[in-house]
Every structure is written in structure tokens, then in C-alpha cells.
Amino acid sequence: MVDLIVLLVLLALGYGFGRYAEKTHYRSIIKREKLLRKIPAIASKFPPMYRNPPETILVTGGIVISVDYFKRFVASLRNIIGGRITSYESLLDRARREAILRMKEQARDQGGSMVFNVKIETASISKGRKNTIGSVEVFAYGTALLIKSN
Amino acid sequence: MEYTNPKIPEGINTTTEHPLKEFFILTAGVLALIAIVVFMLGLAAQTIARKIPFQMELELAKNYQVEPSSNPEIQKYLQKLADRLATAQGLSKTLKTDSPVTVHFYEDNIINAFATLGGNIIFYRGMLEKLPSENALALVMSHEIAHIKLRHPIMALGRGVVIGLAVSAITGASGQGLTDQILGDAGLLTMLKFGRDQEQEADKTGLAAVAKIYGHINGTTDLFEMFNELPGGNQQLPQFLSSHPQNENRIKFIRQYSIDNNLATRGKILPMPKLIRKYLESTSTPTPAPAPKEKIKN
After folding, report:
1. What ipTM goes with this model?
2. What is the pLDDT of residues B125-166, one digit of tens each?
């Protein structure tokens, strides 16, 4: 009985905080994406052709994001039945977009006008400790072009 | 020339569905699945347990300690009655053993009698006090013997152990401790839970044996009728009846069964033997909830 109460409290806490964090995070992501639209990030290996070869630098953006108790519980139920783990989908979507945003912010701060050859890596922090830590790192990196305005 | 990233449409990589909806559907589905699996396991265990030879059940029951009966005289009488009924039911042939039934008598004022593992039947003084005649006593005894004949105790044990194991495996409780607890609880001195169908089966088999010995079944249902007339009705049902079919239904069922099988319903009702009447008089103590003695007719 005590176990059940503890479980319900953890679920409620996980749901409440997780939901709040997700909402505010998405609001911030959408706002910042709008601001940084002018610095495009593209996956192409080759930059557009320029008469004078521009200067380039490496820009990176990383984020570590943790799963909440509620998401983990729903995912573990999904593990039995199968299907889309939607609770993790939104988590990783946030992580990817945040990583790209941070990469773009780095490019903007260094005077970059666009980032090409963008790649995304993920690393699970929970390796070997499956039930204690459930967090994931998403790391985006690319080559920023520094073009003088003329 | 200027490049820009377009606005990404939302809800492609994620879902717009409310997370609680998925949570409730999944939880309900998984719980239902677990319930079905546990129920099926219990059913399977019960079916298999029935095939365990009675000799093995006797071996198993040896592990449980039995208190010596507190009154050897009464115990002897009850054992004799039980042996007669067991012979009438053809018990030793069914179970392939010479003395399948052992009666234990305890002087507690609990209104109960029950059959448990290893062919043991526990009879309490409280039950004896409530029984109006030897015929009624014979039906109670015969009913418990029928449980043993139909292997109900070992079936209940098998079901209990398997369900306990499954639940402990799912909830992650320590399996060993739980099984020990179940095996301990299901021991000799505790009552096992039988299903309603099993009770009815035992009534049938028990009634047929009583009819065989006395030539009729008159007086056997007096006990249930008496409890039916008690003020307060079902609220203060003694333990013996609480797990059984409702008294009224039970009386109806027994009547119908006797009509269907041409059992004589008229005959001489034998009073309780002197030995028992004397014993009950000499040991009667005022109980917190006095029994309606005027309703017991000898």
C-alpha cells in the first residue's frame, strides 16, 4: 500500500513538473527559432559557391536532458505492448532543436551567417545504470561561414 | 543572396495527443492483461494440483504441526462417524489409501468446521453446539469429507501458491518470503478458500452419503434453516456459512437435488448422542453473544 502511494506521488510529481518544463521549453524553442531563422543550418557537405573563399569556424551546441518519472513509467508500459513511445519522442525533439539552436547562437555570436555540414550526435548518459539515471545528450555541430557583408 | 530556414510545422516528430490519455489506456490494458494471466495460471495450477496423488498430499501435510484434539472421547466419536461416511462415499477407493480422513476436535467456541490438506477435518465445539441432530451433524461431516474426496484442499493450495508466485514476480516482492507465507497460511489450522461450485459439489456428494447411511435426508437442513431464522439474517453469519452459498439457496438446492435423485425426505431424525449432549452441558459457558438455545430442538 505504501509502495502504491509512493508510486502515485512520484507519478504526479513527474507529470506536473515534466509537463510544465516541456511547455515552457517549447515556448522558448519556437521563439528562438524565429529569431535565428536568418542563420540557416543545412546538412549539405559543401558551402554555396563564393568568388572569394570565406573564413570558416567550427560551431557546436550540446544539451543534456533528463526524463521524468511519468515519461519513464509510460515508456516502460509501452515496452510491454509495443508501439510509438510518444513520451520520449517529445523529449528528444526538444533536445535536438535545443542543440541546433545553441549551435546557431554560437555561430551568431562569432559573426557567422550560415552553418553547413550540420551533424547531430546522441549519447545516452544512463549507460550501465539503467534504472537510476535516464538522461540523454544531444550534440549538434557544423561549419559556420563568416562572410563579410559585401 | 540570402538564405533562411523555414518555420518547422509542429506535431510531426511529436504527438499532439494528451499524455494522460496514453497513460490511462496503457495502465488499464496492462493491468487487465496481468489479471487475466494470473487468473489463467491459477486455473491451470488448480487443474494440475488435482492430479497430485493423495499419498503425496499426506506427505506434504506431515510438515504442518497438528495440535492434539482437546477431547479424545468426542474426537473418537466424530472419527467413527467420519469413517462411516467416508466408506459410504467410497473414499479409500478414490484416494487409494486405507484411512484417508482424520478428524480433530477443538473446544473453541468457533462456529466452524472445515476440511484441509492431508484429509484432515477440523471440528470446533461451537459448531457442535449449534447442530440440532445427528443427521445435521452427519451432513456437515459428510460435506467436509466430500471436499477431501474431490481434492479441493490441494487445489486451493496449488492455486494459492501459483497466484502468489506470479504476483510476487510482477510486483517484485521477495518471492521466497511470499511463497513461505502462503504455504504457511495454507497449513493445517487455517481454512482454505473453496469456490461456490466446489461447495455445491461437496453438498451433492455429502448428501448422497448421508442418504446411504440413514436411508433418508430428513433433518439435515435444519442447521441452515435455523441460521435463516436468526434475527439480523446474514449479518451475523458464522464463519462456516459465510463462504458458502446463501442458506436459502442452499436449502433449495438440497431439496431439488433430493427430488432429482429420489432421496427419501421422510424418516426418523436421530438425536445427538448422549455423550455429546452431556459434554456440551458440562462445558457450557456464557458466551459474549448468547446463542438462541430455544431454537435448538433435540
Report:
1. 0.79
2. 888 888 888 888 898 899 999 999 999 988 888 888 888 788
Give the gap in angstroms from C-alpha B27 to the nearest C-alpha of chain A: 7
B25 contact A CB<8A = no
Give the side-chain half-sphere CA count within 13 A for A108.
Answer: 16
Phi, psi of A138 (to 5 degrees): -120, 130
Instruction: Residue window 76-105, chain A: list those with CB within 8 Å of chain B.
Output: 77-78, 80-81, 84, 86-87, 89-90, 93, 97
Q: How many Cβ pairs closer than 8 A exist between chain A and B?
A: 59
Q: How many domains does chain A have?
A: 1
Q: Check: CB of residue B19 under 8 Å from CB of residue A74.
A: yes
CATH assignment of the domain containing A34 = 3.30.110.70
By CB atoms closer than 10 A (0-12, 13-18, 19+), residue B64 is: middle
Residues 111-150 (A) with a CB less than 8 A from some CB of B? 114
pTM score over 0.90: no
Domain residues for the domain of A36 are 2-146
Asked if B72 reaches chain A (Cβ–Cβ under 8 Å), the answer is: no
Asked whether A144 and A112 are in contact (CB, 8 A), the reply is yes
Per-residue pLDDT reduced to its tens digit, B86-125: 888 888 788 877 778 888 888 888 888 888 888 888 888 8
Residues of chain B with Cβ-Cβ distance to A80 below 8 Å are 30, 33
